Amino acid sequence: MQVAKHKGLLYTLISIAIMAVGTVVAINYAKGGYRITNDGFRQNTGLLSANSLPTGAQVFINDKLVTATDDTLYLEPGNYSVKIVKDGYSTWQKNLDLEAELVTQTNARLFPSAPSITPLTFTGAENLLPSPDGQKILYFTASSSASKKNGLYVLDLAENTLSLQKGPRQIAENTNRIDLSLAQYIWSPDSSQLILIDENHQLLLDINKLNDLDATPDISFRSKQILNEWEQEMLLREIQFLSKFPEEIVAIATQSAQNVYFSPDKKRLLYTATASAEISEGLLPPLPATSTQPQERSIQPGGIYVYDREEDKNFRIGTAIDQETKLVKNLLSLEPLSEVMSATAGAATSGALRSLQTDSLPQTAFNFMAYHSAIYADTYQWHPDSKHIIFTSENQIKVIEYDGSNTNTIYSGPFFEQFVYPWPTGSRLLVLTGFSPDVPLNLYAIELE
Asked: What is the spatial distance between Cα 196 and Cα 218, in angstroms, rounded to a whole number?
């Protein structure tokens, strides 16, 4: 009996030991600590998560076809040329550094090489203005067969899908009182109201109803107060977003840059440098498996950059061709973040802050337009996924990753005044164009999925 008890205890201890070793092996196997390959026992492998959108693309490692997305590969640490290919889509390619026991993801977005184009308006679209929330487009039409259908419209991008095409909705009829084609507009920060401006009128419109322009009272006597309140709201949001960035980056964005735009997820900052500066190393604690693409921390005037606050990386993605003729958009604040925060209580009138309002109403309208959308600053703009940048070049629409890699031409053809705007989901790009001289310009959607 004693021998049996000893054997039972021995078996129990052996089982516990096997389970412990198996657990350690499983953990290390999962994170690439070691692998059994054709060449024998390998330790400290790196993990490459080869994923793509859409899936089912071929994965080439150092020009050799090895698998299809989505798959995880265990490779020795080192630098690899990774290429992802799918018929009908642009090729994605990068050199990636794999580190031992760390996962590196490709996150490859593949764009169609021959996208389809869908019309969204049919009676003409002009005087376009995207809303601050990116969900709506305001435009004017004067080519409808019924005169009452001419006027201001809002195209709701969030509701407009291929399966649910509700179409634009009219918010104001044409009137002899105001020339809507020449008027200017300012969106409220919450995208629920508009101030209409012309030489003789300033009207506050509700975008959720059909406004009678002839019966709408003039707000010239209080428009400045309304705009002050809107700027205050915009400033508070801006301070909230800026507070998550290192103070050195905030100083550059508010004092040495123009055309400054947050990514939709507020984790990256797109800007055009107006002065030379050196971004210090180690502004934030290092993260494992960060981007291995070349970055530039010595910024030069005219360079277009993206700063990533999660990885503390600064990438140059382009150059502003003519700084003097480019339309300029700055952040509301011109002082270091600490000083801006202390001035917040009186932000609307503080001398330490730059107001978008000027003595010229058209210039004020333009300043608000450029603040809310990069289209009017004539510069690069964010794709809704916060990982890509949209820009135009020589009648072409291009998309580039925020780290400066994988430039793709999405569309090559006519489009009016470089108007390009992304659908909120990133599934489309909107352009203003026409395919016949007898038909007014209309909004078209370039399908990216």
From this structure: 10
Tens of pLDDT, residue by residue over 85-102, are 999 999 999 999 999 988
Compute how many other C-beta atoms are within 10 angstroms of the C-beta atom of residue 229.
13
Instruction: Identify the three-state secondary structure at position 363.
Output: helix
Angle at 185 between CA 184 and CA 186, to 5 degrees: 140
**pTM reported for the whole predicted model:** 0.84
Is the CA virtual torsion 331, 405, 87, 392 positive or negative? positive
Q: Is-cis flag, bond preceding 286, omega within 30? A: no
CB 406 within 8 A of CB 390: no
Structure tokens at 278: 């050196």
pLDDT given at position 15? 57
* Residue 61 · residue 77 · CB < 8 Å: no
DSSP assignment string, 50-91: E-EESS--EEEETTEEEEESSEEEEE-SEEEEEEEE-TTB--
Residue 221 exposed, middle or buried by CB count within 10 Å (0-12, 13-18, 19+): exposed
- Helix, strand, coil shares, percent, the chain, to 5: 20, 35, 45
Q: Alpha-carbon torsion 298, 300, 305, 310, what sign?
A: positive
At 26-64, the pLDDT tens digits run 445 444 444 444 444 455 788 999 999 999 999 999 999
Nearest CA among 441, 397, 440, 405 for reference residue 422: 397
The two tokens of residue 349 are: 């009138």
Helix (H, G, I), strand (E, B) or coil at 422: strand
